[in-house]
Structure formats: C-alpha cells, structure tokens
Amino acid sequence: MIAVLAGGTGGAKLARGMLDVVGAAELTVIANTADDVEIYGVHVSPDPDLITYWLADRIDSRGFGIAGDTWHLMDALEDAGHPTWFRLGDRDLAMCLIRTEHLRAGARLTDAHGHVVRAMRVDARVLPMSDEPVRTEVRAEGRSRPFQEFMIVDRAAARIEGLELRGIDQARPTPEVLEAIAGAEAIVIGPSNPVISIGPILAVPGMRDALRAAAAPVVAVSPFVGGRTVKGPTEPFMAFAGLERGATGIVAAYEGLLDGLVCDERLADPGLPVCVADTLMDDPASRRSVAETTLSFAAGLARGRPETEARH
Ligand code: GDP
What we know:
CATH architecture: 3-Layer(aba) Sandwich
Strand order of the largest sheet: 5-2-1-9-10-13-14
Structural class: alpha/beta
Largest sheet: 7 strands, parallel
Number of domains: 1
CATH topology: Rossmann fold
Radius of gyration: 19 Å
Number of strands: 14
CATH class: Alpha Beta
Mean pLDDT: 96
Strand content: 15-25%
Low-confidence stretches: 308-312
Number of helices: 12
Distance between the termini: 26 Å
Bound molecules: guanosine-5'-diphosphate
Shape: globular
CATH superfamily: CofD-like domains
C-alpha cells in the first residue's frame, strides 16, 4: 500500500503516475481540504476533486475541472447578474452536488467524497485529510480573505502578510488516513505547495506523529523543476514562510519528517538521502517514471540501502 500526500496539481500528477505503477487497490491519496469552499449552495473540495479527476483521466487541460465540461449553469448565473468569480463547469458542479447531498444527510466528508470518487469510476482511495472543516485564510494588503478569493479574485498578486488555518485545532486525521499511514509500505509527499497544500495536511494535530510513527519511509518529491516551480504561487508562499527557493527549502519545510528526497538538483549538504532525477511530469510516461523512481528509492530506504546515485 502506498500513501501519497497531495494538493491538486503536482501531487495529483504524481498520484496518477502511481496508479499506473501500483494499481488502484494499492493506492491511497491523502488530500488537502483547507482550500474547500462553500459556494452556489454546494461544498467544493478543489484538491480532492482534482486528484479524483486526474485518477479518472478526466482532468481538463487547464489543470482543473473536468475535460469537455459545459458552462450552462455559470452562463445562467451570469445572465441573472449573480457573481461567478468561482467558475465551476456543469459536470464539476454535479460532483459537488453529490458530495453536498451526502454531507447534508449527515455523512462525514470522507464518505461524501467517496461518493464522488465512485461517481468518477475511480477505484483508488482519495481521502480528505480530516472530516472537520479547515480553511486557509490569506492576509494581504492589511486584510484577511479566504484562500480561493486570494487566488482567483486577487490573482495571488498581493504580497502575503499572513496565513491562518481556521479550524485546524479542532481537526483530526480520520481513521482512514491513520490506517493508510500506518499500513503503508511507502509514504510519499507529492510535489505540491509545501506551505498551502501539504502544510495544512501536516498541521492537522496528530498527523506528524502518525507519519513519524509509521514503519514506512517518508519520501518527498520536490515541486521545483530546473530551479523554478511549474505552476501556481508556491514560490511566494515559500518566501512568506521563510523557506529558500528550491529543494533545500523543501527539506527545511519537512524537517523532522523525511527519510529521503527526490529532486532534480544536486545539493551540497542535504543531510538526508537524495535521489536526483528528472521530476517534470508533463505526459503519462514521465508521470509513471517519476512514480517508479520515487517508489524504488523508497524501497531502498526501507531496506536500509538508500539509492543516492544520480539517475536520468
Ligand atoms: P494546487 O493545490 O493546485 O495549488 O497544487 P499543488 O500544491 O498540488 O501543486 C503545485 C505545485 O505543483 C507547484 O509548486 C508546481 O511546481 C508543482 N508541479 C506541477 N507540475 C509538476 C511536475 O510536473 N513536476 C514537479 N516536480 N512538480 C510539479
């Protein structure tokens, strides 16, 4: 069993590669839910949904939403003069409706999202990090706003002055998450934003202890490719958190947790086993290859013989 911690882009792409390598029965993805938002009367879980769409091979080429989706509902809302800054396609919205219906009937977020996973015909598990609500708020220009508003309305352009995870103290890892971590052969921290995607997962009280107690090696894949992040505001959030750009910053972000790191840089003094490999995942073959490399590196660590030599 492989457990992957993921946000909605880098981690999701790696999870898709893992699916090819280990198969659905062996794959559990633990997803950030601090980007969740209630809008248009539904509960949207952007990261769990993107992971699910990736695993279903239904992700749109924009990197979010469902391929080939239509926009009738957004058009109707726009005609009605209703704000539509958060764009949800019709099929995407249908998945959110399924989740919301189950939540309103009293289901846990884990089970409600499980219905979305099944609706997308995905057999791997995609688990919210917790059932309790956690919401990222970003402070910029002297004002706090929900994460999605900062990303979409403000286009993540303003200088970040603060970050808050509302509800984090009340959150707990779910039994399913704890079981996945305890039973894993390898635990992989995907190449997601370490501050706002992986950060909230690790901040759930009890999560770090569970990872430290796990028998499996914990390996991170760096989101830096050729020294830069591929997409999204990882760099400004890392700068805000006082983390250096590049793999050194990733090692610092996960201090005390990692048994190894996969990245495309040679680090002078990493302080842990490093597997140097290409980590760009822009097609199925490269996603599969990064997943394979990561898992064989983790297997070497588990046997106590880290494979630290360079690969290409
Ligand atoms: P979000 O939830 O959509 O913001 O996405 P994540 O936090 O999961 O992912 C954002 C990170 O994914 C960025 O830092 C990117 O550098 C990283 N990323 C995207 N594509 C790739 C890739 O092909 N390889 C690697 N190594 N990182 C990637």
